[in-house]
Design a protein that fits this description.
By secondary structure, this protein is α/β, with parallel strands linked by helices. The chain has helices spanning 17-26, 43-55, 59-80, 84-102, 111-118, 120-135, 159-171, 201-211, 245-253, 264-269, 323-333, 358-365, 393-400, 427-445; strands at 5-9, 33-37, 141-143, 178-182, 185-187, 193-195, 216-221, 242-244, 274-278, 287-290, 298-313, 341-343, 347-352, 370-384, 408-414, 417-423. Bound molecules: adenosine-5'-diphosphate, aspartic acid and magnesium ion.
Length: 446
């Protein structure tokens, strides 16, 4: 079966009964489509809290959080349905899931139990929404994501497996045009419940769209597309009508929260356009991400926090080939990706954001070099078109950073990206200054 569109609705977009009414209207169409839903906004955070309580052995506090969450849903379903039938089904569904949540009180609590708890948000939101569609007479089928969404031992999605098993599920309902499924959740290489990391519902939508080679993936959220800067920190940002896959992928990877860091890659690989749209303002144009370039010098800026900079200094580095390889091998052994890198004759500085194995990495590096570590760093990533013959961009960018201490600069790694590493305490100031110096003059004149 060819699925024309994959539509993903985020937490805020399903965050209240009224929002779900809107979603039901927005997905109305004659096309075949899969609708991917997040958990109701705030729920995944509450499930994280519950897991923390269990982890700390605080069963009473866990039970209290569970009770509060149950009450929140009871208020939700009271408004969502008007018929007794649907209400009854929803009450029974909630009872089942909340019994499951309470059941961990006597278990050994490991990461596996935590993941099972985190999956409840999407399992509940999709079921509640599908009951609502039933109530209003809209024919749809709930597809269980845990039957087809899978990651391998490196936590990478298995696209062939996803395609094959998703098709098996779809083919069970050949007469249906509308499918609902859970974002974020998956199974891992052990067959256990896992997830695609926070914000992962975008990734689910992109993986489904790519696996099925759909015509379009739509990410419906609470803002009118990808803005030129982070609207949570900066005034006067604006949406960008069109950008290319590589521009969007850089922005997502380097912290634009509107998209999960990896979510553009599957769509890009299969050349499926991604449209970012606003549930609260469906008539807004949003952003179309495709092979078309944005044709702007400065497209947008994003910031990625929680970065650790490591400076590795060794007198042996001077003219020593093989030195960099031995450093990179340490990171490879611990499956830790490096984001930024700068070199001098006697030292190399690089950054990582996954600090799971930091201690071990440092121990190995210290065997043949002296090592300095700076925590609480932020990468400011300016995405644009900086072809090798063009000039003046470094000057513009440095002007924006004239009052901010810079730890590292990376220019020329790709023609799409200029990155700077700063202490996180300067992040807001840096983003605002980049907006004022690199973006505002063009927009004011436009
Ligand atoms: P959802 O719950 O729909 O997945 P998210 O909260 O994950 O929504 O993403 C949308 C939010 O991303 C916006 O409300 C906005 O605050 C934030 N955001 C950060 N950077 C950008 C950007 N460059 N453009 C648009 N939104 C951004
Ligand atoms: N519910 C998950 C989260 O809050 C996934 C998502 O919303 O995309 O991270
Ligand atoms: Mg999100």
């Amino acid at each position: 079966m060819h699925i024309k569109k994959v539509l993903k609705f985020g937490g805020t977009s399903v965050g209240a009964p009224e929002r779900m009414f809107d979603v039901a209207k927005l997905i109305r169409s004659n096309d075949t489509r899969i609708v991917v839903l997040s958990a109701v906004s705030g729920v995944t955070n509450q499930l994280v809290e519950i897991s923390k309580c269990y982890h700390n052995g605080d069963k009473d506090k866990a039970a209290l959080h569970i009770k509060q969450l149950h009450e929140k849903y009871q208020g939700f379903i009271a408004k969502l349905y008007s018929k007794e039938d649907a209400k009854k089904k929803a009450v029974a569904l909630l009872e089942e899931h909340f019994k499951f949540l309470l059941n961990f009180a006597n278990d050994l609590f490991t990461v596996h139990e935590e993941r099972a708890i985190l999956a409840q948000g999407e399992l509940i939101s999709t079921a509640l929404f599908q009951y609502y569609l039933e109530e209003i007479g809209e024919k749809s089928v709930l597809l269980p994501a845990l039957e087809f969404m899978r990651i391998d031992e490196d936590k990478e999605p298995m696209l062939d497996y996803i395609r094959e098993n998703l098709n098996i599920e779809l083919n069970k309902h050949k007469d249906c045009k509308l499918f609902i499924t859970q974002g974020y959740i998956c199974r891992n290489s052990y067959g256990k419940v896992d997830n695609l990391k926070r914000g992962g519902s975008d990734y689910t939508a992109s993986l489904i769209g790519a696996a099925l080679k759909s015509d379009e993936i739509q990410i419906w959220t609470d803002i009118d597309g990808m803005h030129n800067n982070d609207p949570r920190f900066v005034d006067k940002t604006y949406p960008i009508a069109e950008m290319s896959f590589d521009e969007a992928a850089e922005l997502a990877y380097f912290g634009a929260k509107i998209l999960h860091p990896s979510s553009i890659l599957p769509a890009w690989q299969e050349n499926v356009p991604v449209r970012l749209l606003n549930t609260m303002q469906p008539e807004a144009k949003g952003t179309l991400i495709s092979t078309n370039d944005s044709n702007r010098t400065y497209v947008a800026v994003a910031a990625k926090d929680g970065i650790v900079a490591i400076k590795i200094r060794s007198s042996r580095m001077l003219l020593a080939y093989g030195f960099l390889r031995s450093i990179f091998e340490v990171f490879e052994r611990y499956k830790t990706p490096i984001d930024m890198i700068t070199t001098s004759e006697v030292a190399v500085s690089l950054t990582i954001d996954d600090t799971t194995h930091l201690k071990d990495i440092l121990k190995e590096l210290e065997e043949y070099a002296s090592v300095d570590v700076d925590k609480d760093q932020t990468i400011i990533c300016i995405v644009g078109n900086f072809a090798s013959e063009s000039y003046g961009h470094a000057q513009d960018v440095l002007k924006a950073f004239s009052k901010i201490p810079i730890r590292m600069i990376s220019y020329g790694g790709s023609k799409k990206n200029i990155s700077l590493l700063i202490n996180s305490k300067y992040k807001k100031q840096a983003l605002q200054s980049v907006n004022d110096v690199l973006f505002m003059p063009q927009e004011v004149l436009a």
